[in-house]
Input
Amino acid sequence: MKKKLSIVIPYFNGDESLVELCNEIEKFIDREKIWNEVLFIFDGPEAGSWEFFKEITQKHGFKNIRLIRNFGQHAAIRAGLTIASGDYVAILDCDLQDPPEVIHELLKKMTSKFDVVYGVRDGNYDGFIRKSLRKSFNIMLKAIYPKNFNLNIGSFMLLRKNVVEQILKIERINQLGLLVHSMGFPSQTHLYNRKKRKYGKSSYNAKKLLNHGIQALNFDLSHFFRISIGFSIIFALGSGLLGLSILIRAIFANFRSGWASLIVVSSLGFSFMLILLSLIGYSISQDLSDKSRPFYILDERK
Output
């Protein structure tokens, strides 16, 4: 029995690229000869011309879903995942920066060993401001997340149906790439050349990019607080040893220093406060993280 592919496309301000995008998707489908469904999610009245959008997508036989208002990219993706019926689900942006033909390579890498294939961005596809913001947040994210987190992963990916089912069980709509990555499904990556935006401007202005970066930083802080606890304990031990050495010198070498004692007491107090705050932060972040993940996931790969 042939596998079915669903392509989920969140749509916002893509009127200029829509005709070319639909043509490219149709070319890919004709070449791939795979049973498919294409789902466009029209993200509210601000997303563009509904009549134009409906005319073009229906002309190609694609499904379109209209949201009552603008909920954002990740919420639109989740709406599409809820409706998608394919054995595999590809998530694709509407701006043509992620070429539809790359899905062919993702499908080739989706062997029986894997449940997820991530598209990893490469190339000079961003302007100066976006690139600078992305690099700044990546530096901060590297300090927070484990080394195995690939920060060049976005929402362009191919998922098995069982992964989609697990995503829909989680009450979280932002940071899809980080969410899927954190779930730990067997996965691999495909490096592709992301194109520069050909039509219009991105809806992610500086304010939205900043908010997106803050959400990414706040996605799972438990790793950061684990590191913080370690540094706090080391700092506390160092302060304790310094205090002990001052005490020994005071007893045996008749050494007196009010400043040294004051510094030691302050350092120890600061250390204990830092440990306490780190433990509280870790507990809260771990609790929130646990609530947004399933307790276990059965291996359903076939």
